[in-house]
Every structure is written in structure tokens, then in C-alpha cells.
Write a structure and sequence with these properties.
206 residues, alpha/beta, 5 strands
């Protein structure tokens, strides 16, 4: 039998291949985990008003922490070799010093539990009261991220532990308070009343 020499070249349908490729694309989009870079959660202050007066702070109301490019710490102008847990406790002592409280400071002091009042050193060389206390941290551009975060964590933890102890719970429980519920919202606000979280982060040195 003679073969048909005019028969065309057989072709493979690409329609099914396109369907398979589309399904694979959807599969990888659904199953692939995309890396999510995380930073430091901080609430920035609102921009100052044009006519806002410059507030001057007494030196005793500023707890100074400096970090250089070698990850050496200076705390209150002295070399600091203690662990971060000790730094946290020193920040707490600074905040609750009550060295020279005004009327607002007296009200804050009187609202504290007895065990917190007992720890107030009332040193004239440290903060007047929590409303005036500022924790100042300045790093160098060569400071490691680990040290930078450790210092900020210590400062944040100091405030959170003060707030929590004031209302009789742990720091973790304080952070987990549901502010959408009236009772827990009042507890959250009572912890912070008169004790603003004043952490100043200065621009790093070059």
C-alpha cells in the first residue's frame, strides 16, 4: 500500500501543558513561605508643634547609656560590665527614685503599693520623680544590633515591670491585657498613670 507522502508533521497539543504549568504556579504560590523581616516595635512620638517651647531637663533626670563601636557600654559615665538584668534593675531604681517630687510626683508616689514605696531611694542626685525621668540611649554606627536591642529590651522591660507590679500582676500578664475590655483597660492605664515611658534614642555617632 502506498503511503501518503503529503501527510503533515504530527503536533503535540500544548493546551494541557499550559494547564499543568498554571496549576503548578498556583501550588507554589500557596505553599511557599515568604520571609518576613521584623524590626523593633516602637511607637514614635508625634511631630512637635511649631510654637512648642524647648523643654530643658536637669542632668539628674537623665539616665545616660552610651555604646561605642566595640560594644562597650558607658552607664552614667562609667564603664558597665554587668549583665542586662542588672541594667534593668538600675533603670527601675532611677525611675522610682523620687528625689525631689512636685505635686504630681507626690500623687504618683502615694498611689504606689507599699513595697514599691519602700524601694524609693530619694537620692537628690537621681531623678526627681517618674514624670521627669528620661532614659537616654546613644549608640555608635558600629554598635552591634545585638547590643542595641539588648539595651532597648532592658529599658522597655524596666518600665513594663514597674507598670505590672503597680497593679499586682506579672509583666507578661500586663502586656497581654485586653484593652478592648473595660476592666483590663483601666488596669493597663492605672499601671502607667504618672509614669510615662520616656526612652530617648539619640542619633548614632558616625
Amino acid at each position: 500500500m502506498a503511503r501518503n507522502k503529503d501527510r503533515g508533521t504530527p503536533e503535540v497539543s500544548s493546551g494541557s501543558m499550559a494547564d499543568i504549568a498554571f496549576l503548578l504556579l498556583i501550588f507554589f504560590l500557596v505553599t511557599t513561605t515568604i520571609a518576613n523581616d521584623k524590626g523593633i516595635l516602637m511607637q514614635l512620638p508625634p511631630p512637635p508643634e511649631p510654637d512648642q517651647p524647648i523643654v530643658e531637663f536637669q542632668e539628674r533626670n537623665i539616665f545616660k547609656i552610651l555604646a561605642n563601636s566595640n560594644d562597650d557600654l558607658l552607664v552614667e559615665n562609667e564603664v558597665y560590665l554587668k549583665p542586662m538584668s542588672e541594667l534593668k534593675e538600675e533603670i527601675k531604681a532611677f525611675i522610682l527614685n523620687f528625689g525631689n517630687p512636685d505635686a504630681e510626683g507626690v500623687d504618683t508616689y502615694n498611689s504606689l503599693p507599699s513595697q514599691m514605696k519602700a524601694r524609693a531611694k530619694q537620692s537628690p542626685e537621681s531623678s526627681d520623680h517618674p514624670g521627669k525621668a528620661v532614659v537616654s540611649f546613644k549608640a555608635n554606627r558600629g554598635t552591634s544590633y545585638e547590643l542595641y536591642i539588648d539595651v532597648l529590651d532592658a529599658a522597655q522591660a524596666a518600665y513594663n515591670e514597674i507598670y505590672a507590679e503597680r497593679v499586682g500582676i506579672t509583666a507578661q500578664e500586663y502586656l497581654e491585657l485586653d484593652k478592648s475590655r473595660d476592666v483590663e483597660k483601666r488596669m493597663y492605664e492605672q499601671g502607667k498613670l504618672g509614669i510615662p515611658k520616656a526612652i530617648s534614642i539619640a542619633e548614632p555617632d558616625k
